[in-house]
Amino acid sequence: MSATLLGxxxxxxxxYDLALVDLDGVTYKGHEPIEFAAxxxxxxxxxxLRLVFVTNNASREPESVSDQLTSLxxxxxxxxxxxxxxxxxxxxxxxxxxxxxxxxxxxxGLVTAVTEAxxxxxxxxxxxxxxxxxxxxxxxxxxxxxxxxxAVAGGAVHVVSNLDLSLPTARGFAPGNGALVGAVVAATGxxxxxxxxPSPAMYAMAIERAGASRPLVVGDRLDxxxxxxxxxxxxxxxxxxxxxxxxxxxxxxxxxxxxxxGADLRSLLVPHTAPTAAAGGWWECDGSAxxxxxxxxxxxxxAPDADPVDLVRAACAAAWAFxxxxxxxxxxxxxxxxx
Length: 339
What we know:
- InterPro entries: GNAT-like, HAD-like_sf, HAD-SF_hydro_IIA, HAD_sf.
- This protein is α/β, with parallel strands linked by helices and 339 residues long.
- The protein is built from eleven helices and 19 strands.
- It starts with 11 loop residues before the first helix and ends in a 15-residue tail after the last helix.
């Protein structure tokens, strides 16, 4: 499977009718705003782009998320939020019947979603749950993970909100739900069913609810946000404000590659130039260029006032074309391109 960057002659906010926007690492980090996020999203809305915030975080209620967004000058309502807790509750229906007993290991958002889906929430493995629903919450401890392990070892189906190994915060990256799920898997040897990205299920739910026909996924993680976009066949914009970097884009596997790359959410407001092949094996993008020779990436910067993301785009095109033709790019030749 190959994948390459797309171009758009008009701003993305006009080319698409719905943006499926990730939260952590895209609109905020922890409780801190991300620079230009509010400006970019407000202007995109003014241009006619609808927004649904789609997050792998299952610990919070949609109302709590929308309140935080509004406090960061990004007006939102609960209906604008789609959480992995909601997707997890829906996934439970593939494995247990309504009315089944479910041990919830997670935050209030997951408890609410499971309850509203018609299941009976129990507190202990001793309550003989039919399933365990696990999602991230900063308050989770050893006792919670142990209870989940006892239930899964006893035969309960293990359904989790997501498998993100890390979580971006204002202080750096902290263990995510995937790390906590790993503790239960280590104790039981049972692999769980995951509802969150990179499964495209949440995207499909949000698109159906919005009645959109031209959706765009916006995220910061290649292995969840953009992999989910690829899996669902939706175009994806990678903004370089969170987990993955421009260097990661260049070295990305086909199933995790973005269709568009932007420094931040203001990239919704501008056209995007697609790289084109040129003489000598070079790939060019608005004056910046890159090529791979003998497995080594070479880059050529454009004019001093050139958009630094154009060099990233050219480098992606060169590296991806070389890789898709069977070559191997030497990662030591791929620089950390500043944007």
